[in-house]
Amino acid sequence: MKVGVVLPISENPQTGAIPSYREIRDLARSAEGAGFDSLWLFDHLLYRWPYRPTSGPWECWTLLSALADATERVELGTIVLCTAFRNPAVLAKMAVTLDAICEGRLILGLGAGWHQPEFDAFGLPFDHKAGRFEEAIKIITPLVKEGKVDFRGEYYSAPDCEMRPAPRAGGIPVLIASKGPRMLRLTAEYGDSWNSAWFGRPTQLLPRRADLEVACGEVGRDPKTLEVTAGVQVAYPDLGEVSMPTDDPDKVLTGSAAEIGAGLREYADLGVGHVIVNLAPNNAAAQARFAEALRAYRAGGE
Question: How crowded is residue 137: how many other Cβ atoms within 10 Å of its Cβ?
Answer without folding.
Answer: 22
